[in-house]
């Protein structure tokens, strides 16, 4: 297997394990056992577990936005259709069998100090989500509306994980429909 494919396999395995069991609970040996990649290969790509965590978060950020934008950007900003699409994309996500919550919320919890790089990547990701929401608002709405929408979306993501169902996201979608109509 080429080196780039092994690196990809390590990232995918690490992300899956981090989401199932947590960033701090999963060790390098577990990632190696699950991926079948040699320890030397892992350390060639990621000199430390921290480096693997950071690159896994960057990988997830790229995955997340690529999927979200590919779906939501097909909807018009007018009448709030793109915002509704953003929430519907999240509803599909929380309904998926692989849903284990938000990697960035998990990273911020596991690395609570704002000076930690994983925490900073989580904050950067959430700022990107807020910026995307603000850019998706119909013209008559402003930044305070983007902040409210972000709070509702984030709350629904977390509560959907806590309650292991999509009801909070469905309620957030109803709230959004009332907010933008």
Write the layout of secondary structure elements.
Elements: H1 3-21, H2 28-35, H3 39-45, H4 49-72, H5 81-95, H6 103-110, H7 117-135, H8 143-163, H9 167-180
Helix pairs in contact: 1-2, 1-4, 4-5, 4-7, 5-9, 6-7, 7-8, 8-9
Keywords: DNA-binding, Transcription, Transcription regulation
Domain HTH tetR-type: 4-64
Pfam families: TetR_N (PF00440)
Summarize the structure in words.
The structure is a single chain. The chain is mainly alpha-helical and 181 residues long. It folds into two domains: 47 residues, Arc Repressor Mutant, subunit A, CATH 1.10.10; 127 residues, Orthogonal Bundle (Tetracycline Repressor, domain 2), CATH 1.10.357. Helices cover 75% and strands 0% of the residues. The chain has nine helices and no strands. α4 runs parallel beside α7, α6 runs antiparallel to α7 and α7 packs across α8. The model has no long low-confidence stretch (mean pLDDT 94). Pfam families: TetR_N. This is TetR/AcrR family transcriptional regulator. Keywords: DNA-binding, Transcription, Transcription regulation.
What is shown here, in short?
The protein is mostly helical. It has helices at 3-21, 28-35, 39-45, 49-72, 81-95, 103-110, 117-135, 143-163, 167-180. The chain folds into two domains: 1-47, Arc Repressor Mutant, subunit A, CATH 1.10.10; 54-180, Tetracycline Repressor, domain 2, CATH 1.10.357.10.
Features:
9 helices; mainly alpha; single chain; 181 residues; Tetracycline Repressor, domain 2; Arc Repressor Mutant, subunit A
């Amino acid at each position: 297997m080429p080196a780039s494919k092994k690196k990809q396999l390590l990232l995918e395995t690490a992300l899956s394990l981090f989401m199932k069991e947590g960033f701090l609970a999963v060790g390098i040996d577990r990632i190696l056992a699950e991926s079948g990649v040699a320890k030397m290969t892992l350390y060639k790509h990621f000199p430390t577990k921290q480096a693997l965590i950071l690159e896994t978060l960057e990988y997830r950020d790229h995955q997340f936005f690529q999927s979200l934008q590919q779906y939501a950007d097909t909807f018009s900003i007018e009448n709030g259709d793109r915002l509704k699409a953003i929430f519907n994309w999240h509803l599909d996500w929380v309904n998926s069998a692989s849903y284990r919550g938000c990697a960035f919320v998990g990273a911020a919890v596991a690395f609570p100090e704002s000076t930690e790089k994983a925490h900073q990547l989580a904050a950067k990701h959430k700022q990107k989500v807020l910026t995307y929401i603000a850019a998706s608002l119909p013209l008559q709405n402003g930044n305070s509306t983007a902040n409210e929408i972000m709070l509702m979306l984030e709350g629904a993501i977390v509560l959907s994980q806590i309650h292991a169902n999509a009801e909070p996201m469905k309620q957030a979608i109803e709230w959004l429909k009332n907010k933008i109509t």
